[in-house]
Automatic annotation (TrEMBL):
It comes from Grimontia indica. InterPro entries: LysR-type_TF_proteobact-type (IPR058163), LysR_HTH_N (IPR000847), LysR_subst-bd (IPR005119), WH-like_DNA-bd_sf (IPR036388), WH_DNA-bd_sf (IPR036390). The keyword Transcription applies. Residues 5-62 form the HTH lysR-type domain. Coiled coil: none annotated. GO terms for molecular function: DNA-binding transcription factor activity; sequence-specific DNA binding. This is Glycine cleavage system transcriptional activator.
Amino acid sequence: MPSFPSMNALRVFAAVGKYQSIQQAAKTLHISESAVSQQIKNLEERLQVQLIERVGRTIKLTEKGALFYPFIDNGMVCFTEGLDALETLNREKLVTISVIPSMAKWLIHRLPDFKKFHPEIRVRVHSSNIPTNETNTEVDLSLRFGLGNYPGMTTTPILHDKIVIVVAPSLLAEGAGINLSEYALSLPWLGYHAKDIEDVNQAIQRFTDDKTQNISKLASKIDVHDAIFVLEAAISGQGVAVTKHTLALPYLTSSKLHCLFEMPTFTAFRYFIVHPKKRPLSVEAETFQNWLMTALPEDFPELVLRSVDL
């Protein structure tokens, strides 16, 4: 009984049998044609069987070669699948999510719940406002706030938001007995920098009952670009802040801020879960996405999109 042939020789024979061409087999395997011919010769000597024959300038499998080929081809497929299975088992179970800064705090505080149910998955969180795109191979999922126009990406709308006008309780106490909107207009207003400025100005106009008011007119003394810092400034009593409900909720719940006015957004801005269309989600990323689709509505039930909102 001949000894078992080398794996390289079998791999070369599988390619030659598939393409019926030494040239194409060499190109596919990234080796020279002479190397292909030598491997076939070695295999034939090892098996003591002629596997291919030349017909003019072409080659074809002999009767015995044609009998042998399907077994080797199937074996190579099984071998490759086995290697893939081992690689999957050994691969670190990791999911990387890019989240806008305004939702990063919520996500970090919520992650222990995910880890409780999926301790085997490591979560890497990037905080970024940079528009997501299909060329970023480092990120599996993104949580974004916008209009959903992300080329090459699959977008799943999940929440809308509300605009809230908030102030520190200490400032509110100073204005006790005074008309709320008039008192608020007498205070400094903190700058707002975001895409949904139209919603912000609409909220201010409704709150003050003055269609000429807008954030750029009011926020003339203190201008903070980062949304988190705006809220920190408001908590310390530096003025009135206009922000998203999702961002202010922890501070409202803990009574660090008081809501003067709230208004549902009327523009098409939404929170979206986003991932590349051409790159299938890993099992870990799909697991995390399913968890997000449950966790966000649980924590923001009044912001869940209804079918009429989609």
